[in-house]
Amino acid sequence: MPGDTKLETADELWDLYNDLERLKGYKYTQPIVSDSGINNEKFHMELPYEEIKQIVEDCRDKFMSAVPEDEKASLRWEHVGSTSIKGMPGAMMPDALLIVPQFPPSKGVIQAFLDSGYYFSSSSGLDPKDLWWFLVFTDGLLKDHKLTVHVVTEDNRAANMLLDTRNMCRNEEWAFTDYKEAKIKAAKGSWGEYKKGKGSNSKLLVMLAEKYKQK
Q1: Peptide bond into 105 cis (omega under 30)
Q2: Residue 1 pLDDT class (50, 70, 90 cuts)
Q3: 10 to each of 6, 41, 43, how far by Cα in Å?
Q4: Nearest 5°: phi and psi at 163?
């Protein structure tokens, strides 16, 4: 089933974000077809942590330079996911959070994404106020991979789970080992099975899901 039409202006996206029912049903897809035979779903036992960290920081800096000056101080960018944890295996598709002061994000923030080469795909199936923006890399180490930026407010449950996962894996050996083993086990299946399995197989993620369970 084909997805929705790509929205390419800040006004169109602002209108979508202000209509939660419409937002819940919206999904634009832009599959990556590699001309170099790159498998961007490949599971890597050793990710190039420092290199990806630098790429994500460069993306942050480019995006923030496009944000209106009077809004920059209110925004917070956080590198999350497996690529933010040194020594954690996974796919070479980095994730970041852009924490905004309120929902929906301002037109200035929306325009900064558009001006920086990102496209809006959909909101999370778990929370329509978790907005998923994608940037496709066309060259370099991450050619034919994509960066996912989750645009959220600081009270967003999924965002706090991502932050807690990163912080606990960086600082607590049991959490790192638990999540690493869950990912390796899940990687034996398909991409979809991997995405689901790494959560259900991890004591850490089950614990955090319970912590942030919607009341």
Answers
A1: no
A2: very low
A3: 12, 31, 35
A4: -65, -45
